[in-house]
Write a structure and sequence with these properties.
By secondary structure, the protein is of the alpha/beta class. The protein is built from 13 helices and 14 strands. Strands 2-10-9-8-5-3-4 form a seven-stranded mixed beta sheet, with helices on both faces. Strands 1-13-14-12-11 form a five-stranded mixed beta sheet. Helix 2 packs across helix 9 and helix 9 packs across helix 10. The radius of gyration is 22 Å and the shape is globular. The C terminus is likely disordered. Bound molecules: pyridoxal-5'-phosphate. The site of pyridoxal-5'-phosphate has 12 residues, from helix 3.
């Protein structure tokens, strides 16, 4: 038996058991077989008519995921951060004032990038774990009588803290202040998994990345652009070349790219959109809501708290879990990886070592999630957290058993009450 169960390795995950790891970071997420197969194909000529046949309907259908009819979506090679850069350089000019509430790592990184682009960043420093303060946004916009603020940047779903901001409230702040600033929204970890209503919220720029709710490998930056944002490109003076929207719009009009596109990823995106629309956007949102509720139930049963300060801001796609000071979150993450091939998200910036994150987004469903919760529970217990083994998973299963009914959507703050029709 010595060669079947090696005594020194008995407690370590055997990599040969499966090629599917338990990827529970908040993106990249697991890529379903359907999408993998759609991408696994011979390389095609991106100037041939077949490419336009793939691409033109894709450009239309991706709008359904962003819930926009009046806007357009551009799809660049790159990650979400490339989407940020493309958006700001195409619509703003050096020295423009931009209002950026900073309540997590991704807000902070976005603000840093805006600084590097020589924009004049007006940060609203907000305690991490909270959402963007709509009232402060309103007050600052109202005070700006000369309308010098050209844009407000909001991260819809702050992946570092697991906090959702009420974008509709931010839109109201702009409208109530009668301010013409552009509204930029980062939907990198929400679009395709949580209600994101680009038209209804009058979002001017909506940024997404392929590797989260869209269930694709990293590599695509998707940018929703309103008509107003498109007009702003005519006067924007930030330097841009590769990411120039006008080149992209022109080539896309005929179904092509102004450069070599990532064709296989686009085939994957076609399949991803098919899967989401087949399931139905509302169902997809509801599935994410159920998963989030189950994780929240487990967290509370473990006697732990989420980083999100208020229940109404709990994210449906990621939970950031705060550990007692006696336990280093990095150790939990490392043990989960070592023993169960379970990959959890680390705490970012000032949350490093204090928080670990469970991503529950993309192709996630109750059974895979349950496995991850069991893994976390085992690791937490062996790290010395005083929990009754089974308490967390039991609470999660209880939550899952009670949330099968779609009518429960009404309990969900971000429920898709205006899903695209
Ligand atoms: C909310 C949010 N915005 C932006 C980014 C940056 O995206 P990327 O790493 O794809 O460049 C991330 C990445 O996790 C994110 O979660």
């Amino acid at each position: 038996l010595g060669y079947i169960i090696h005594p020194r390795k008995a407690d370590q995950f055997n990599k040969t058991m499966t090629d599917n790891n338990f990827l529970f970071v908040p993106g990249p997420t697991f890529v379903p077989g359907r999408i993998q197969r759609a991408m696994s194909r011979s390389i095609e000529d991106h100037r041939a008519p077949q490419f336009a046949e793939l691409f033109l309907p894709l450009l239309e259908d991706i709008k359904k995921i962003f819930q926009t009819r009046s806007g357009n979506v551009l799809i660049y090679p790159g990650s979400g951060s490339a989407g940020w850069e493309a958006s700001m350089t195409n619509t703003l000019s050096p020295g423009d004032k931009v209002l950026i509430p900073v309540y997590g790592e991704f807000c902070r990184r976005w603000a840093n990038m805006a600084n590097k682009q020589k924009l004049n960043v007006l940060p609203i420093l907000t305690e991490w774990g909270n959402e963007a303060p709509a009232e402060t946004v309103f007050n600052l916009l109202e005070e700006d009588v000369n309308k010098e603020i050209k844009a407000v940047f909001i991260v819809h779903n702050e992946t570092s803290t697991g906090v959702v901001t009420d974008v509709a409230a931010i839109r109201r702040a702009l409208d109530d202040a009668q301010h013409p600033a552009l509204l930029f929204v980062d939907g990198v970890s929400s679009i395709g998994g949580m209600h994101f209503a680009m038209d209804q919220w009058a979002v001017d720029i909506a940024v997404c990345g392929s590797q989260k709710c869209l269930m694709l490998p990293p590599g695509l930056a998707l940018i929703g652009i309103s008509q107003k944002a498109r007009k702003a490109t005519l006067h924007a003076r930030c330097p841009r070349a590769y990411f120039d929207f006008s080149d992209m719009f022109q080539a896309n009009g005929d179904g092509y790219y102004p450069f070599t596109p990532p064709v296989n990823l686009l085939h994957g995106l076609r399949e991803s959109i098919n899967m989401i629309l087949e399931e139905g956007l509302e169902q997809v949102f509801h599935r994410h809501y159920r998963m989030a509720k189950a994780v929240q139930a487990a967290v509370h049963a473990w006697g732990l708290e989420l980083c999100a300060q208020s229940r109404k801001t709990y994210s449906n796609t990621v939970s950031a879990i705060v550990l007692p000071e006696s336990i280093n979150a990095a150790e939990i993450i490392q043990q989960a990886r070592k023993h169960y091939d379970l990959y959890l998200g680390a705490g970012l910036g000032p949350l490093e070592g204090k928080v670990f994150r469970i991503g529950h987004l993309g192709t996630i469903h109750p059974l895979t999630l349950s496995g991850a919760i069991c893994g976390v529970e085992l690791v937490l217990q062996s790290a010395g957290l005083s929990i009754n083994i089974g308490a967390g998973i039991s609470a999660a299963l209880d939550s899952l058993s009670k949330s099968t009914d779609v009518s429960q959507l009404n309990n969900c703050r971000n429920h898709p009450n205006m899903a695209y029709r």
